[in-house]
Amino acid sequence: MIELPTTSGDGYQSNGYPGSAYEPVFADNELVFDEKESAQIETWKSQYPTVDGAIMRVLWLAQEKFGFLPPEVIRLAAKATGIPYAKAYGVATFYTQYFKKKKGRHVLDVCTCFSCQLCGGFDILHYLEEKLGITSGETTSDGEFTIQQVECLGACDGAPMLQVTNGRYVMQLTPEKIDALLDALREGRDVAFESMTLPQDQDEMGGNRRSDVTNVLESRPAPVSKTIK
Length: 229
Hints:
Layout: E1 2-3, E2 32-33, H1 35-46, H2 55-66, H3 71-81, H4 85-94, E3 106-111, H5 114-118, H6 121-132, E4 145-150, E5 162-164, E6 169-170, H7 175-186, E7 194-196, H8 199-205, E8 215-217
Parallel strand pairs: 3-4, 7-8
Antiparallel strand pairs: 1-2, 3-5, 5-6
């Protein structure tokens, strides 16, 4: 079992900042990886030439356990991995998939990068903002939804699109599809996987590349944005 001490050998307090007035979100007795989690971390560490290779997986485990990564949780992950806090902090703050602040139960990452921007990305973002009564970067008062605008998610042919809490992609969005998505998430229903094959590959593959899915999207001309910001 790995616990986070109140002070470290490098003089940092449990919040990860030397001499700061930061108030930790989690108490010291909460900052613990249990035996199963600790064993998993040791397995990951053994799979890399040096232990710092495991930090991304350990941070992900920490986020799943605590919900997000305030400094004290990043420091717990650093200690468990056996690397300096600064190195773990650098990784956690580089990737947007690691949440440094508390988010809603469902995080809706709306792509507004160039392709989606021209194909309705901001139209979808603004529709979500109006529907949920919040703006990008905010969380609904009931803690259900956080909206974020993000850079390219690599699904330009499905524009406009979004990602749900670092998981499923939802493509070819319309207001009606957004309404159905929000209802499903509120009711605790899974977001169905959608498969799309690029048009240049469809003939070669005889249609969609996946035969094990029920939600198949066909490539189609993208809509034209009403707004681009």
